[in-house]
Write a structure and sequence with these properties.
This protein is α/β, with parallel strands linked by helices. It contains eleven helices and seven strands. Strands 3-2-1-6-7 form a five-stranded parallel sheet. Strands 4-5 form a two-stranded antiparallel ribbon.
């Protein structure tokens, strides 16, 4: 039975959570798009054909939306089912794995804000229905504002209309009516620096080791990353497979579970940039599987 939280008051503090690698391990949107592509061999072939152009676009903020759009289109072109039905099918097929992706310490902090009556919003790069469906399963929380990447029709399939990412995440929060100052923000990613820098109390969760120095430099000392070597849920860092965890608070540190990313694609030889290659590998499935 899900917990009932008090409704936030009009003047309640605004608290914004990222989703991927913050509340749940892994990249929810990428997993969904990869499943869309993997449903048929010809979709995988189509993704490989667009990869030499779309793959490098994923590595850079100004072009990331177009790169993601290309792979979403490859996975959805000619599809008759509506987006909501596809998301529901994906969640049903992968419910066990999605439940296992929960980061319990982060979810405990999330629930604590809800109990206090804070106005909690999830803003994620994944489609909002997908993030909401996962939250219902891992946190039992269905009554929560979730903002995410908006997909719309394009060229016979789906493409990204608005990517809830970087500065656009702040714009989408404002457009949704969340115009008050942000009291606290939680995220793992340097792409969320506009959000973290706007918040009165930014909290960085599970950063990549390569980004630790950046967070220390641009965020106030209270948000500086710290290393936590304690054993917890048996974490291996998601980017370099090393133990690394940024504490939510000194008494609430935890480790994240291993993120499992597929490796290997014949198209990689066409992508020279290491960063672009890593981004591309997240979207291309090794074998095509039926839904």
């Amino acid at each position: 039975m899900s917990e009932r939280f008090p409704a936030p008051a009009a003047a309640a503090p605004l608290v914004v959570f990222d989703f991927d690698h913050t509340l749940c391990d892994g990249d929810a949107g990428t997993g969904f798009y990869r499943w869309l592509i993997g449903r048929a061999w010809w979709r995988g072939l189509l993704a490989l054909l667009v990869a030499p152009v779309a793959g490098p676009m994923l590595a850079f903020l100004p072009t990331r939306k177009r790169g993601i759009s290309a792979f979403v289109w490859a996975g959805s072109v000619g599809e008759r089912l509506p987006l909501d039905a596809l998301i529901d099918r994906y969640v049903a097929l992968h419910e066990t794995r999605l439940r296992a992706s929960a980061l319990p310490i982060a979810l405990a902090v999330f629930a604590e804000h809800r109990r206090k009556g804070d106005r909690v919003v999830v803003a994620t790069g994944a489609p909002p229905r997908l993030a909401r469906a996962i939250l219902e399963r891992v946190a039992g929380d269905a009554d929560l504002p979730v903002l995410g990447t908006e997909l719309g029709p394009g060229c016979g399939g789906l493409v990204v209309a608005r990517h809830c990412h970087h500065a656009m995440k702040l714009a989408m929060l404002r457009d949704a009516g969340f115009t008050q100052p942000i009291a606290a923000a939680y995220s793992d990613s340097s792409a969320d620096l506009p959000l973290l820098q706007t918040a009165q109390h930014p909290v960085v969760v599970n950063p990549k080791p390569a980004r630790v120095a950046l967070f220390r430099r641009v965020l106030p000392p209270r948000a500086a990353p710290v290393q936590d070597r304690r054993t917890g849920r048996g974490c291996v860092d998601r980017s370099q497979r090393r133990d690394c965890r940024l504490a939510l608070r000194p008494d609430q540190r935890s480790e994240c579970p291993v993120s499992s990313y597929w490796r290997g694609a014949s198209a990689c030889g066409l992508i020279r940039s290491t960063k672009a290659r890593a981004c591309l590998l997240r979207y291309l499935p090794l074998r095509m599987t039926m839904p």
